[in-house]
């Protein structure tokens, strides 16, 4: 499961569709409707909120907006209405940089032109649910042993 902290504008078609599907799964997990993925580390940041289901629904809404911008047809009925307002969640500069490198590895294989554009980005924008502060990669992130992080 990869719920990108990066803004969905950076994702290629495959990445956006995969993120949509995985966030829909996360919505089910956070609502207690599955047995699997209940302890997935990426869900910790949503569980720290007053209402994790509302938080993931806000996350999904931003994916839906990006899909609409690209004239994709994601089904908005798959997202429930957030029950409460969730203030932006913190993330770190280290997390965004880690995700940039992770995404670049994928884009270099699938969408080299998008990879080249991402490499030019000096300052990355987070997903609208997040605000950025200085810091290392998030503690919940699973970092491969061969990673420089």
Strand portion: 5-15%
Rg result: 15 Å
Range of helix content: 40-55%
Side-by-side strand order of the widest sheet: 1-2
Organism: Oxalobacter aliiformigenes
Pfam family, one: Pyr_excise
Protein name: Pyrimidine dimer DNA glycosylase/endonuclease V
Give the topology.
Blueprint: H1 13-30, H2 44-47, H3 52-69, E1 89-92, H4 93-110, H5 112-120, E2 130-133
Parallel strand pairs: 1-2
Helix pairs in contact: 1-3, 4-5
In a nutshell, what does this entry contain?
The chain is mainly α.
How would you explain this protein's 3D organization?
With 149 residues, the chain is mainly α. The chain has one domain (8-133). It has helices at 13-30, 44-47, 52-69, 93-110, 112-120, and strands at 89-92, 130-133. A two-stranded parallel sheet has the order 1-2. 31% of the residues are buried. The mean pLDDT is 94.
Keywords:
5 helices; two-stranded parallel sheet; mainly alpha; 149 residues
């Amino acid at each position: 499961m990869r719920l990108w902290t990066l803004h969905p504008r950076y994702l290629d078609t495959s990445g956006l569709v995969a993120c949509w599907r995985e966030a829909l799964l996360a919505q089910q997990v956070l609502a207690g409707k599955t047995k699997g993925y209940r302890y997935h580390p990426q869900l910790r940041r949503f569980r720290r909120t007053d209402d994790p289901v509302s938080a993931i629904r806000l996350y999904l809404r931003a994916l839906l907006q990006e899909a609409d911008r690209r004239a994709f047809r994601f089904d908005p009925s798959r997202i429930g209405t957030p029950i409460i307002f969730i203030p932006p969640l913190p993330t770190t500069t280290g997390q965004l940089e880690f995700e940039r490198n992770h995404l670049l590895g994928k884009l270099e294989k699938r969408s080299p032109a998008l990879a080249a554009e991402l490499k030019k980005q000096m300052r990355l924008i987070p997903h609208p649910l997040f605000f950025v502060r200085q810091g290392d990669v998030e503690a919940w992130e699973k970092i491969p042993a061969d990673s420089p992080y």
